[in-house]
Structure to design on (167 residues):
């Protein structure tokens, strides 16, 4: 989608691309030998992989935008623990989520801040400010070291271009 909209984004000053990640990015690793999980699929592994991939995309896109001097930025966010149907099939998540998780109105805060904060910097990552980034007001947070590996990000970028045909 971003590739198809890039012309419009580049023509619009101060535009930005916001990608949604998750705290689950911390358990994500890319397996380039089975990137689409055709040989081995475990839901949480695939989810973690997809969320770290969102961060790789954001950081690599931001590097590419900055290198061209574009007036567009890429940022990312995660909603903390938000009480949504993502946990509908997990008794423990539903039970503890009723007490610990934010309502969707709170969980959308980091994405809204990423999309609208006039002080945002390209490559920023927003999440909740509370304990373990589970809940709280949105703030700039830090993703794990793996998600900032430039070599992995460039490789994923190339593979993504090959798979989608979008440059």
């Amino acid at each position: 989608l971003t590739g198809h909209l890039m012309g419009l984004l580049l023509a619009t000053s101060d535009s930005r691309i916001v990608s949604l990640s998750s705290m689950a990015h911390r358990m994500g690793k890319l397996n380039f030998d089975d990137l689409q999980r055709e040989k081995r699929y475990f839901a949480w592994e695939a989810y973690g992989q997809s969320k770290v991939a969102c961060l790789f995309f954001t950081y690599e896109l931001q590097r590419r935008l900055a290198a061209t001097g574009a007036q567009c930025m890429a940022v990312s966010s995660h909603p903390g623990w938000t009480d949504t149907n993502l946990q509908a099939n997990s008794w423990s998540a539903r039970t503890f989520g009723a007490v610990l998780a934010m309502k969707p109105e709170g969980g959308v805060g980091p994405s809204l801040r990423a999309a609208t904060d006039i002080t945002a910097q390209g490559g920023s990552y927003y999440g909740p400010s509370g304990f373990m980034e589970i809940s709280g007001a949105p703030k700039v947070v830090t993703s794990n070291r793996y998600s900032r590996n430039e070599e992995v990000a460039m490789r994923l970028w190339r593979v993504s271009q090959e798979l989608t045909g979008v440059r």
Q: What stands out?
A: The two ends are 11 Å apart (CA to CA).
